[in-house]
Amino acid sequence: MRKVPALVTAAAVLAVPCYAKAAEKIASLGNARTGHVAVDYTIAFLGIPFGHTQYDIRVGSDGYHTDSHFETSGIVSAFWQATIDATAAGQFTAAGISPAQYDSHYRRGGKPPRRVKLSYGSDGMPVLFADPPYDTHKYPVTDAEKKAGLDPLSAATSVLTAIRESATNPCGTAAPVFDGRRRYNIEFTYLRDEALKLDNGLFTGNAHLCQLHYNQIAGFKPKILKEGRELPPAYAWLAEIPNASAPHGHYIVPLKLWASTGFGTVTATLTQLKVEGSAGKS
After folding, report:
1. Are 231 and 261 in contact (CB under 8 A)?
2. 49 near 61, Cβ under 8 Å?
3. What is the chain's percent helix, strand, coil content, to nearest 5?
4. Going by DSSP bridges, is the β-strand pair 182-197/174-178 parallel, antiparallel, or unpaired?
5. Range of 87's domain?
6. Diameter over CA atoms, the chain
7. What's the number of domains the chain is made of?
8. In a domain, 173, yes or no
9. In a domain, 222, yes or no
């Protein structure tokens, strides 16, 4: 079970967006742009819920602020009780997205909590603070690799705000991530559109079926990769939710994500969706 959160995070987050289109859209929104997206997911293994995760993104003319929460529940908490709270903030730019700060707090059972913070300078270089500290020498990440990535929440924000989409790939091309000790990409492959109706009634309509692939670039390797195996392929249904506050005029919301492991299927299913926003010329 310890591998599941990394798998779900890889599937959820979430490389070459239409920069000119994004810049034109952002400029047209001006100072009046405000938006709010809140999504909750239930995470299950073999159909049995074992946790939930939440994302709350606020968009404005001064940039974005994202909060997330992950927590185990049910029988899983009896032997693996964990919570992760994180925040991120940054700016939308003509080049896509520019993070300013990421701060996460991980608590697992009775073990000491771990804090990981990334602060970004004007040159885009992230400065790491980790308590307890990481051993960054055994699995090094170069400065160039660090600058090419986004913190995990900013990467997810870039997917949800459609910054990563392209004309041929409505899922988004890739979310580049540097989490303080790993540099990896979550790469998206658009397969087809499908008619979808969630059992909980939150969505009915066409959704993009996408395949997600975890591509390790540098830094610490998850146990499964150290053993010479690959993470199983993951899939997602993504829906375009129109909203004037979004840089591209819509948000891209994962409706369901799933991956089949050797022991069964892990799923993350949307259980709450709230989208608010307005935009106008300043």
Report:
1. no
2. no
3. 15, 50, 30
4. antiparallel
5. 4-275
6. 55
7. 1
8. yes
9. yes
- Read off the pLDDT of residues 33-52 as tens digits, 9 standing for 90 and up: 688 999 999 999 888 888 99
155 φ/ψ angles, rounded to the nearest 5 degrees: -65, -45
Find out whether 126 and 168 touch, Cβ atoms under 8 Å: no
* Within a domain: 281: no
CA distance 7 to 14: 11
Provide the token pair at 254: 């994962």
In 189-199, which positions are buried (b, 16+ CB within 10 angstroms) versus exposed (e)?
ebeeeeebebe
280: in domain = no
Residue type, 264: G
Is-above-0.85 flag for pTM?
no
Distances (CA, A) of 215 to 10, 70, 117: 10, 23, 23
* Distance between CA atoms of residues 234 and 266, nearest Å: 9
d(C-alpha 12, C-alpha 52), whole Å? 13
- By DSSP bridging, strand 82-93 and strand 174-178 are unpaired
pLDDT tens, N- to C-terminus, the chain (282 residues)? 334 444 344 433 432 233 233 333 333 334 456 889 999 999 998 888 889 999 999 998 879 999 999 998 765 555 567 899 999 999 988 878 999 999 999 998 878 999 999 999 999 999 999 999 998 888 899 999 999 999 999 999 999 999 888 888 899 888 999 999 999 999 999 999 999 999 999 999 999 999 999 899 999 877 666 655 677 789 999 999 999 888 888 999 999 999 987 778 899 999 999 999 866 543
The amino acid that residue 85 corresponds to is D
Q: How far apart are CA 39 and CA 217, in angstroms?
A: 29
